[in-house]
Amino acid sequence: MNEIPLSYSLGLSAILFGIGVAGVIVRRNAIVLFMCVELMLNAVNLAFVALSPYAGVEGQVFVFFVIAVAAAEAAVGLAIMIAVFRHRESVDMKNFSLLRW
Amino acid sequence: MLLLQEAAHGAAALAEGNGFTPVLPWLIVGLPLLGFVLNGLLSVTAARRALPTLPPVGDPYYDHAHDDHGHAAAAPAHALAPAHAHAAVGAGEPSEQESLDHGVDAHPVDRAAARDEAHDAHGHDVHDAHAHDVHDAHDDHAAGGPKPFTHTLPSLIAPGVLIGSFVLAVLNFLAMKNAGEGARLAIAEGWSWMPVGNLHVDAALQLDPLSILMTLIITGVGSLIHVFSIGYMKEDPGYPRYMAYLNLFVFFMLMLVLGSSYPVMFVGWEGVGLCSYLLIGFWFREKANADAGKKAFIVNRIGDFGFLVAMMLLFWNVGALDFATVNQTLLAGGSGVEFAGPVITAIALFFFLGAAGKSAQIPLYIWLPDAMAGPTPVSALIHAATMVTAGVYLVVRSSVIYTMAPSASLVVALVGALTAIFAASIGLKQWDIKKVLAYSTVSQLGFMFAAVGMGAYVAGVFHLMTHAFFKACLFLGSGAVIHAMHHALHSTHNPADAQDMRNMGGLRKYLPVTFLTMGVSTLAIAGVPPFAGFFSKDEIIGAAWLGAEGSSHLSGATLFGIHGSTWMGVIGVILSIAAFMTAFYMGRMMLYTFFGDNRTGDQERKHLHEGDWTLTLPLIVLGILAVVGGFLNVETHVPIVQLFNFGQGEALHHWLHPVLAGSDDVIAQNVGRLEEPVHALWPIALAIVIGLGGLALAAAMLGRRRLQTAEVQPAYQGGVEKTLYNKWYVDELYDRVVVKPVGGLSRLFARFDMGVLDWIVDLFGRLAQMFGIAFGRLQTGQVNTYAFVLIVGVLIVLGSFVAL
After folding, report:
1. Which fold has domain A6-95?
2. B181 Rama sector, left if φ>0, alpha if ψ -120 to 50, beta otherwise
3. Which value does ipTM take for this structure?
4. Fewest beta carbons less than 10 Å away: which of B130, B264, B463, B668?
């Protein structure tokens, strides 16, 4: 049985990460932005898992941390977004430039 | 108890007859300091008690309380709404805040009535008070109730500490007198003050014949003036503050004369300057008084600069600053400082600059006449008897230095003589009784400097002492006159000047004690035998004549290429003319003040009367001293007055001999033996003629002149009188030559500061602002932009790692 080559896994990870970055930069909808951040985190997770046979099991341990942080982030971030939406009736990032000069 | 033990100890030392142990020397200076602290606390207390009682911050009941008078009576502290607070302050004790509050209120009677209402309304247990505006120190319209303790205790504390110091000084004097002549020196070590490298300055007191003599004068005359101050100042709102300053002054003055080194002396020197400033500007709400204080302070700073430079030169060249070591080193000649060399001359001249500032000599005399803005007892104590003689003391204390610098000594003598005649000429045409005395003081200080400059140190100290007696008496007498005049003019709200002699006249009927004591002192200062001033002034002028004949160590010295003996002859002539002028203007002052018809006014005349015992007693004591003070140092060769010689004669001369032995040694080393002076009788005859002649001329010229009041009588007639009245326009000259250019220069620098320096500083501020505005545009508020910038940054960093 052929193993999946490492380059495939890392390539997928890079593609996912690139999609995430592009989304964060380009998209205006806060929820989409949020999903793109999650996408970047999971791209990193994939890279960790794919490299663990070569670099040791610590990478897999780290993945759990990332998942935990992502979960916390999702909880806090969604709460903020609901609060913002109640004020603004919108989750468009264009409207959230209050801290500008 | 300690005092008694010490006294017993001192007495035991006396019995041995050779050693001298000082009796509690630090307590002499400590007592006035204690008086300052106590009076200062009382002054602060008085000021605090006079503050309006404000409601507690955030008191919710306050807004209701001041509408409701029933409630107000129950809770007075809360009841004092601002308008009421004012009245309640009026009902309080005499205070400086009060005088500030009432400064615009011109009717004391109304004020008293308003206060009575306040008194009844609140039912406080308050003292009815004399409310005075700044100059109404002697207002007795409002009936005096019991005074608060802040205004009674200073009357006990301030003279008390002074009398205590005087008693200690007398004990020390007796102990010293009983010691052998060689042993009359004691240094009371305090602590090491400045141990820096080679410089070791101890805070120590030096008790020797000169310093104990000065201490006796300061504490003795000072005690009398403190007693006089009670009567003169007790109605003033600032009474405790006044007494505190006066005590502080005495403390610093004692530090000045008792210090064992130049730095310790300098502490006292600066301290008395400070107290002089504080007391000249005592009634500082009037701008002229505050300005006078400032003028005195600033002019004195110029002199102090000289003192400092002299001290530094002395340390640099001699390596020590305490009197004993300096004198020893200079006498031993090991320091490389040559006799009559440039170094010693510079030191002597810079010290003289300091002395000229403190003792009001040309060119720095201008502050002393303005200093008359202070209370009159201050003029008597500080600006006649003690502080202004500090310069003379400095020269006598540095007699070794001055003897080693003959040309500098001649400069001192010449400046003194010129000051004497210059100030005397101004005194001829002043109308303000205190201004006459002020210029007289400058002139007499000139006599003292002429004496010490000519090497006649004993004559200078002798004149210092007799001058302290008769000039203090004259100033206090003028104070009594002003007190009576002010009282009389105030009784009818007459705005005339209480110090102008044109408003006086014929006062001898109303102020007999003042007239007698001032008359005696006038005879003394005019140089009429056998009063005190005759002997001291005769000794000074006599020294000039002897020097002109060649029997002084300065006769051989030269200044500007002219021989010392010639200079001394000139000085003798100048001093004789100045002495004649002195007799004339003093006679004029007495004539205008006490003789002729009274010009005060018909209503006012009824209120002219002598003050209470605190005003007359010091006058009487000082008057007696002005009569007998001269016998202390009667010269042995004067034929008639030999009758007055007690014991050996020239007692002061012998007393001061240990202090001046160093200067005699310098003369013996460098000049050689001086020929014994030939005492002629003509100088004495001349002195008598001058004294009596001046008074007689004044009587003949002015005795029948009928003056009008200051409103009618012009201040001067003709050009000469105008020039004299305007003090030779020296103030205007200084204004033109010094003050205006300095002002212009400061304005120039101000323009540079604001135009150039401030512009540069502002430039940096504006640059930061512009950067802020420019780069602030980057902050869009869009998270996406931030993320983009972040990622670009990460890529650049990573890319640079890869590229490297």
Report:
1. Helix Hairpins (1.10.287)
2. alpha
3. 0.82
4. B668
